[in-house]
């Protein structure tokens, strides 16, 4: 593997969160492709049971096992794992108590669902614990099994509670295997090897959630990473044109003459109507561009590295994932 510059050298666990609808899973998948590029091995994990990874990679639903799902640019493999809390509970019972058979019996009785319902912190410990184990895991030769792990985490509003596992299980277990397990998870999540990234859009609500989420992470002693601004539209026009549109300084009659001369309109009436519609469209574009600029400046105040990912005209498919991955790599995020 060749060395490369990255803003996150030394980080092995990339946790991706964001307000619903911002493209969190898409960004997590693209980041995994970027991290795996050049011969690396990366695990992409989801924990919400939505099968979002399978959808973005156009795959059938993923089982609870690690399997290769994509080849990264320049070589390298992306593996995926859809964590199932029930299966994670069975692993936990076997690991700490040697009770896998008993765990299956408890599953049939509904005891595991009952336990994770009355103690939701335990559910989070189980699913984050599986991710933390993958980060720590080593092969027989002593090398790390994965060069990096990317966790497609819950939305911003729940991210601190999801990750702050030691606090969440404090009332459930102050000593013993559960407490020990939670401490292991916390040791990984709060370490310099972890970065918690936010995905947002240049819109007021997701930007505000990002700002609030960063503040909550810092208050909880958890490491914020970068801000991925998704679905960014190109400005398209120089600032002077945008200013003119906002200030109503476009000459509709002159524009109509230009449209007619270019063969883009038939008669005078048609040219005038087209020119008026075009001016209105440019003015709306200018307003949106100015609002997006204000949101961009607001995001800059949190003091985190930011990366802008383009709005894909044809939507997100496999080609689009690789395009976003290239953008992430070019900007130094992986």
How would you summarize this macromolecular structure in one to three sentences?
The protein is an alpha/beta fold and 334 residues long.
Could you explain how this protein is built, in words?
It is a single chain. Strands 3-4-2-5-1-6-7-8 form an eight-stranded mixed sheet, with helices on both faces. It is built from 14 helices and eight strands. α6 (120-136) crosses α9. The protein has helices at 24-36, 52-56, 85-97, 100-109, 111-118, 120-136, 156-163, 165-168, 177-189, 204-219, 239-246, 252-261, 268-300, 318-330; strands spanning 13-18, 41-46, 67-71, 77-82, 148-152, 194-200, 224-232, 306-310. The protein folds into two domains: 13-232 and 311-327, Rossmann fold, CATH 3.40.50.300; 239-288, no CATH class. The chain has 334 residues and is of the alpha/beta class.
Largest sheet: 8 strands, mixed
Helix content: 40-55%
Q: How many structural units, i.e. domains? A: 2
Structural class: alpha/beta
Report the count of strand segments: 8
Name the overall outline. elongated
Unreliable spans = none
Measured on Cα atoms, how large is the radius of gyration?
24 Å
| Sheet with the most strands: spatial strand order | 3-4-2-5-1-6-7-8
Helical run tally: 14
Strand content: 5-15%
**Average pLDDT score:** 87
What is the CATH C-level name of the largest domain?
Alpha Beta
* CATH superfamily annotation of the largest domain: P-loop containing nucleotide triphosphate hydrolases
Topology:
Elements: E1 13-18, H1 24-36, E2 41-46, H2 52-56, E3 67-71, E4 77-82, H3 85-97, H4 100-109, H5 111-118, H6 120-136, E5 148-152, H7 156-163, H8 165-168, H9 177-189, E6 194-200, H10 204-219, E7 224-232, H11 239-246, H12 252-261, H13 268-300, E8 306-310, H14 318-330
Parallel strand pairs: 1-5, 1-6, 2-4, 2-5, 6-7, 7-8
Antiparallel strand pairs: 3-4
Helix pairs in contact: 1-14, 3-4, 3-6, 5-6, 6-9, 7-10, 11-13, 12-13
């Amino acid at each position: 593997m060749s060395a490369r510059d990255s803003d996150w050298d030394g980080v092995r666990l990339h946790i991706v969160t964001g307000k619903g609808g911002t493209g969190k899973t898409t960004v997590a998948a693209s980041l995994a492709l970027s991290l795996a590029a050049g011969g690396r091995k990366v695990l992409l994990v989801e924990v919400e049971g939505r099968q979002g990874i399978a959808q973005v990679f156009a795959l059938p639903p993923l089982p609870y096992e690690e399997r290769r799902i994509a080849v990264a640019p320049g070589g390298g493999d992306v593996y995926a794992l859809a964590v199932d809390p029930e299966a994670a509970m069975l692993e936990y019972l076997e690991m700490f108590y040697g009770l896998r058979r008993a765990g299956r019996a408890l599953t049939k009785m509904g005891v595991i669902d009952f336990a994770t319902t009355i103690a939701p912190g335990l559910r989070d410990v189980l699913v984050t614990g599986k991710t933390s184990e993958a980060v720590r895991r080593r092969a027989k030769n002593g090398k790390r099994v994965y060069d990096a792990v990317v966790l497609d985490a819950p939305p911003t509003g729940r991210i601190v509670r999801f990750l702050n596992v030691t606090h969440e299980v404090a009332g459930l277990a102050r000593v013993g295997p559960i407490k020990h397990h939670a401490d292991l998870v916390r040791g990984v999540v709060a370490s310099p090897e972890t970065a918690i990234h936010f995905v947002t859009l240049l819109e007021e609500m997701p930007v505000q959630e990002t700002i609030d989420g960063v503040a909550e992470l810092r208050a909880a002693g958890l490491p914020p990473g970068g801000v991925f601004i998704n679905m960014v539209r190109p400005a398209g026009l120089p600032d002077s044109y945008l200013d003119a549109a906002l200030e109503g300084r476009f000459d509709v009659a002159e524009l109509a003459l230009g449209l007619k001369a270019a063969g883009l309109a038939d008669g005078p009436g048609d040219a005038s109507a087209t020119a008026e519609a075009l001016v209105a469209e440019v003015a709306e574009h200018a307003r949106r561009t100015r609002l997006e600029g204000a949101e961009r400046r607001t995001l800059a105040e949190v003091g985190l590295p930011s990366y802008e990912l383009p709005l894909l005209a044809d939507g997100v498919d496999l080609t689009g994932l690789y395009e976003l991955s290239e953008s992430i790599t070019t900007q130094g995020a992986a």
